[in-house]
Design goal:
Layout: E1 2-3, E2 14-15, H1 34-37, E3 40-41, E4 51-53, E5 57-60, E6 66-71, E7 78-85, E8 88-96, H2 103-117, E9 121-125, E10 133-141, E11 147-159, E12 162-169, H3 176-187, E13 190-191, H4 212-226, H5 228-239
Parallel strand pairs: 3-13
Antiparallel strand pairs: 1-2, 4-5, 5-13, 6-7, 7-8, 8-12, 9-10, 10-11, 11-12
Protein name: DUF3710 domain-containing protein
Region (Disordered): 1-30, 222-245
Biased composition (Basic and acidic residues): 18-30
């Protein structure tokens, strides 16, 4: 904010100066600054062109990317998405948050305890481009049925009254080059929290892109029709003689 005075006793009007994006690449030339480097709030992005509209989240459309919507059992609400980018998977979930930032610190501690309780291990990567990240190793099974530990990378972003959680697995969890590709995608994500009051940590539900639900219903119907039993039923129904006069 700059103040200009012209004459003594003259009323001074404050002038708000627009913030200027610093030069250079975050993590290379300077520190990451969310408002300039993303992920962005809906009010910070004048144009949403090229992004897929999921309501509370707008994600870039990347050639070759596959996307799955994560649906909550029981409510059937869409509570997140998982994008597959060059063999790595990125799961995104957005939550309401208080005006004061710092939710990531609390959530990271909870994740650490959760991973430990599940028999895994974790450590904080203090050198993450977007702040402190959490590297976890969760127990699972390999194709031969043996216990194997899969690496996961958790990234948390505190925004204006929202929090974005990203979970990365696959090559990008540990490989710097693959991580840079996924991070570039993450930085282009836009969060639209909405204006309604929400308790902190309430998940921001998503909406399916236009045409996706109709396409899924069409595929399910086609699969049912193609099933051996379903084909027989259809044929029998189609050949039934009318019973009326």
């Amino acid at each position: 904010m700059a103040i200009f005075g012209r004459k003594k006793n003259e009323i001074v009007e404050p002038i708000d100066e627009a913030p200027v994006k610093p030069e250079g690449e975050p993590g290379v030339d300077r520190d990451w600054q969310r408002e300039f480097d993303g992920p962005f709030d809906i009010g910070e992005v004048p144009e949403l062109n090229g992004r897929i509209d999921l309501g509370a989240l707008r994600v870039p459309a990347v050639p070759g990317m596959e996307m799955r919507l994560d649906i909550e059992k029981g409510s059937n609400k869409i509570i997140g998405l998982t994008a597959t980018i060059q063999s790595s998977k990125l799961q995104l979930q957005a939550f309401a948050a208080p005006r004061s930032e710092g939710l990531w610190d609390e959530i990271r501690e909870g994740l650490t305890e959760g991973i430990k309780g599940a028999g895994g291990s974790s450590q904080v990567d203090a050198d993450g481009v977007m702040g402190q990240e959490l590297l976890g190793r969760m127990p699972g099974q390999d194709p031969a049925g043996r216990v194997a530990f899969a690496p996961n990378r958790f990234i948390g972003v505190d925004g204006p009254r929202w929090f974005l959680r990203a979970v990365i697995n696959g090559p990008a969890a540990t490989d710097a080059k693959a991580l840079a590709v996924v991070r570039a995608f993450l930085r282009e994500v836009v969060v639209d929290r909405g204006t309604e009051p929400r308790p902190p940590r309430e998940v921001l539900t998503l909406t399916a892109p236009k045409g996706v639900i109709e396409e899924a219903a069409r595929r399910r119907a086609a699969a049912r029709a193609a099933a051996p039993g379903a084909s027989s039923d259809v044929a029998q129904g189609g050949g039934a003689a009318p019973t009326g006069p």
